[in-house]
Design brief:
alpha/beta, 2 domains, four-stranded mixed beta sheet, 10 helices, 9 strands, 43% helix, binds iron/sulfur cluster
Length: 180
């Protein structure tokens, strides 16, 4: 695992923390759902897992995992208070929460298209760092080819060539800007 890349991703996530609280107001803790291990489900429901199940806020899946549902302001994450995560410093915090809005799986890095910080391109300086590390956008293959960048990278760095998948047009546009 490339620790430099991990560091970049950590810094990127940290860089938006004030935006998450003040601007976005924790959108990702209010909408959608979250897949959890039992230990994570217990922690996130403040040890009131059974109560949350009865209230229909969380349900146990066949595979033993739990799904926590966020629907509206009355159905937000039980660990969200004043737009802040009260278990943020807990090591047992759900993995998805630790990683969001950037996920890394082997050579693929994904930026969530649901996250306003990604949509507003606030992470672009980190995307540039990833690019410098040899990551390229799967969305941008044609542009890189046109500019001769893809071929150069393939020749120089064939084994390390990896892909960074951008989430939206806003990010693509900025990639175009710096590379044109
Ligand atoms: S959706 Fe994105 S910007 Fe909003 S709180 Fe979550 S990570 Fe932060
Ligand atoms: S555990 Fe924290 S980060 Fe995860 S959804 Fe709940 S409030 Fe948000």
């Amino acid at each position: 695992m490339d620790s430099d890349v991990e560091r970049i991703l950590k810094q990127a996530r940290k860089s938006i923390s004030l935006y998450c609280i003040n601007e976005c107001k924790a959108y990702c803790c209010r909408k959608g759902n979250l897949l959890l291990k039992k230990s994570e489900a217990k922690l996130i429901t403040k040890r009131l897992l059974n109560k949350a199940e009865l209230e229909g806020k969380i349900s146990k899946n066949k595979d033993g995992l739990y799904t926590l549902f966020f629907k509206d302001n009355n159905h937000i994450c039980p660990s969200l208070i004043d737009n802040m995560c009260v278990i943020h410093k807990n090591r047992g915090r759900p993995k998805t929460c630790k990683e969001f809005p950037i996920y890394k799986k082997n050579d693929l890095i994904m930026f969530s298209s649901q996250c306003p910080a990604v949509i507003d391109n606030l992470l672009f300086s980190y995307i540039k760092k990833l690019f410098a590390k040899g990551y390229i956008s799967t969305n941008m293959t044609n542009v890189f080819r046109k500019n001769g960048i893809l071929e150069n990278k393939s020749k120089k760095n064939n084994n390390q060539r990896v892909f960074c998948q951008q989430a939206n047009k806003a990010v693509e546009k900025n990639f175009l800007k710096i590379n044109s």
